[in-house]
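User: HD domain-containing protein, Desulfotignum phosphitoxidans DSM 13687:
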Amino acid sequence: MDPMAVIEKYYPAGSPLHCILVDHSRQVAEKSLEIARNLADPDLDLLFIKQAALLHDIGIFLTASPKLGCTGEAPYVCHGYLGRELLDSEGLDPAYGRVAERHTGAGISLDTINRHNLPLPRRDMVPVTPAEKIICCADKFFSKTGPARHRPRTVPQILADLNAIDPAHARRFARWAQEFRL
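Assistant: Predicted structure for HD domain-containing protein:
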């Protein structure tokens, strides 16, 4: 499976959004591999982690995010589950779609979806597998816009941002940061 071929099916090569997505996804893939290698877990599939990290944000073009140049109709919070639907429609192993769906925030619980009436399917979207947790965690270090686009954020910055969204996200990320020795 060639992640770039999948990306370029939906993002014209060289377009501004393609560049933003690919730059961000490569950063997340590199950080994911760094985390996985530091864990030295022989059961981690490094090829899957790299490929899934490259594809985790494939659904952003389906959302309305003017600062990224996304002209879709859905709110940005939907890009994870929309990415899952897209990857599933490509016939990929469902594990790729689950990574896309579960990486938003530090995962979004069904309780959070219901409590905030988020425009998401009513199901838990919290990372479960080690690969899902690693990619979700790595994603938080890089933004697609602003200063964090070119340099990683720090764990305290990530925790502060996640806490402002939902303290449960910050607690989940803090557990991963400790587990992954970040």
